[in-house]
Every structure is written in C-alpha cells, then in structure tokens.
Design brief:
With 367 residues, this protein is of the alpha/beta class. The protein contains twelve helices and 16 strands. Helix 1 packs across helix 2, helix 5 runs parallel beside helix 6 and helix 7 packs parallel to helix 8. The radius of gyration is 20 Å and the shape is globular. The protein binds magnesium ion (MG).
Length: 367
C-alpha cells in the first residue's frame, strides 16, 4: 500500500468563551486547526488533526504545521502508511524536531492501519480498558468564587475531574483559590491545580507548603525541569509535568530524578500516537500516572486522545480531555463528551470523520 495524495485543510475554531491561562498572562479566543488526509492506492483514506493552543502556549503554531507539511508531505508520497514507526523515522530524518507538525500525519497513518486491520485504534494501542474515560474540565483562571462557579457548571455536565488554572503574581490569591476549590470538592471528585509554568520556585514552594495539608497535586508549576525538580524536592505534593515533557528523554529523566508522579501526555505535543504510546507505556512500566490530552482541536483530535486513554489501564489514567465542546465550529464527528466522559469508537481505525462543509477546500495538495 502506498500514499498517493496528501491534502491539507485549515479550519478556524473560535472558542465559545475567551480563555485565560497562567494567572491571566495568556489569553486565547480562537484556535487554528490543520486537518490532513492521506489517500492510498488501496482506496483507503486516513485522517489526522493538529491544533496548537494558540501561538503563545507552546513552541508551535497553526501556520507552522502547514509550513512543515510543505517540506514533509512530498517525501511521504509512495510510502506505506501501515507502518507508522517507519513513517515517523522518515519524518524525523527529513525534518528533525517539530513533533507537533508530524502528529496529524502519524494519526492519519494509524487511522489507515486500523481500517486495514479492521480494529479500532484503542485495540491496536493496548486494548480497551474499562468504560467511559473521565474528561478533565478546563477551569479558566479567575477569583476563587468565579472558579468555583466554573467547576459547578462542569459538574452539571457530569465532569468529575477538574484542571483548575491558577498562577500569577499574587501567591496569596493562589492559596485562596486552592483552599476554596478544595473545600468545595465533592466525594469522588478530583480537582488539581495547573500552573502552566507561571510560578517561580520561591512562589511555588511558598504556596504549596501553605496547603500541604490538602491532598492535591500540581501541574507544571515552573518553566524548566530544574525549577520543577527544586519545587518537588522542597514540597510534599505529587507533581504532574506537562509542557516540559517534549520527548521520551524528558520522561526518562523525570522518572530517574523523581521529578514527577504524573505526566500529562499531549498527543500532538509529543508528535502523534506513535510517540505518545511509547511514553504512555513507559509510564505504565514505571508507575507514573497519566493524563492523556491534546493541545487543541475538534472531535478528530479528541478521538485520537480517547483511543490512547481508553487503552490505558484505569488505575493509571486520571483523565482524558475534549476540546470540541470548547469551540463553536464542528469540524469532525467522532468521540465526544457524554456526561463528562469520553469513549473510544468501536469502528475500525480512528473512527472520526471530517465535516467537509466546515473544512472547505484544501489549502494544499501533494500528490
Ligand atoms: Mg497542563
């Protein structure tokens, strides 16, 4: 089987509500998504999506994906998409780094492999574990009362895991947010606190030690590995690393130095399902718990996340994520949030179909 044509689509995904991160340092109003189809000489087509969370969250941006594909796509024509590992090796030689650019291609290869095998991707990625996977809500930064209001809103939609975005220039306000949300946490609920790298170690250590009586965990408190390790060693809370885990070497180091008990694997950030699965499997082998998410997108990205999360044993997965419910354009049909949970489709392959009216004409075609 050979790839015969690669089509690239761009779709704007306006957020239903403006979204603040990192103590109000970063604001987001729309996402720029890229959807990619791989056609083959066997008549099977695979799809994948890549969508950075704006341009300020990570070193990646929507136009970057499409520029990178200009380099990569012509070199992929004629190759067999049923071997995603080899396609990844080829892409890494052709364009070192830039994992987020390669993610939609990798996901489309998995989609084709699943269709050929007649199996949903979760079966190929480790087998279906348990029922619907909890989705972590994304609680925008605000006053303690505003943030509790957001949590209550998500609760009515069935969400039981909440990622509360805190951080900023006022450590006292962060202590108040943490205590207020924790005091109103319901039995069986998880509320964790995501800093998105906004603290310096001195603030992180001060705030976390003021709430050391609470059984909560914190995500990516500081920017660098060394800063986060310093914080982990001076505090008692479990730490989740997110933005700082870009490749397997980062994860191996985090494990060997005891920097994190939890890793947030964002499928696009690490380059797609092939590399995300390797990292998930490392976590399973070393007792690290996983959050499995993406950096943005519609139901197509959410579906890839759902498959990897569904194939992760329940004891090791804290939550998945869905972005489609946060945006006002439906770019695909696939796995979606039901009562705050997501379930990987049973259909062969990815099991997500683009909404062609939303995509319009391709912005580039390589054949
Ligand atoms: Mg995070």
């Amino acid at each position: 089987m050979k790839i015969t044509r690669i089509s690239v689509y761009q779709v704007d995904l306006p957020l239903k509500k403006p979204y603040w991160l990192s103590g109000g340092r970063l604001k987001f109003e729309r996402l720029d998504s890229t959807m990619v189809s791989l056609e083959t000489d066997a008549g099977i087509t695979g799809w994948g999506e890549g969508c950075p969370w704006g341009v300020t969250y990570l070193p990646g941006f929507g136009r970057g994906i499409r520029a990178g594909l200009e380099e990569l796509a012509p070199q992929l024509i004629g190759h067999d998409p049923r071997v995603p590992a080899q396609i990844n090796q080829m892409m890494d030689v052709a364009l070192p780094g830039h994992p987020y650019i390669k993610a939609p291609v990798d996901i489309a290869c998995w989609d084709i492999l699943g269709q050929v095998a007649g199996l949903p991707l979760c079966d190929l990625l480790g087998g279906r574990h348990g029922g619907p996977v909890p989705i972590a809500s994304s609680v925008s930064t605000g006053t303690p009362e505003e943030m509790l209001g957001f949590v209550e809103d998500f609760r009515t939609q069935g969400y039981r895991v909440h990622s509360a975005k805190i951080g900023g220039s006022d450590p006292g306000l962060d202590v108040a947010r943490i205590r207020h949300l924790n005091a109103h946490q319901e039995p069986g609920e998880v509320i964790f606190f995501d800093l998105n790298r906004s603290w310096l170690p001195a603030d992180a250590i001060a705030v976390m030690n003021q709430v050391r009586d609470l059984g909560v965990f914190f995500e990516q408190p500081c920017e660098t590995f060394e800063e986060n390790l310093k914080v982990r060693r001076a505090t008692s809370h479990p730490i989740s690393l997110d933005e700082g885990i870009k490749e397997m070497a980062d994860l191996v180091r985090a494990n060997s130095e005891g920097a994190a008990e939890i890793i947030n694997i964002k499928v696009s950030r690490v380059g797609g399902l092939t590399k995300a699965r390797q990292m998930r499997d490392f976590c399973l082998s070393t007792g690290i718990k996983c959050l499995i998410m993406d950096t943005g997108g519609g139901a197509m990205s959410d579906t890839a996340v759902a498959h990897l999360a569904q194939s992760t044993p329940e004891a090791s997965r804290i939550a998945a994520w869905d972005c489609a419910s946060m945006v006002s354009v439906a770019s695909a049909n696939g796995a979606s949030a039901v009562d705050g949970h997501i379930t990987a489709p049973e259909t062969p392959g990815l099991g997500a179909a683009p909404v062609m009216d939303a995509l319009g004409d391709p912005v580039a075609v390589y054949a």
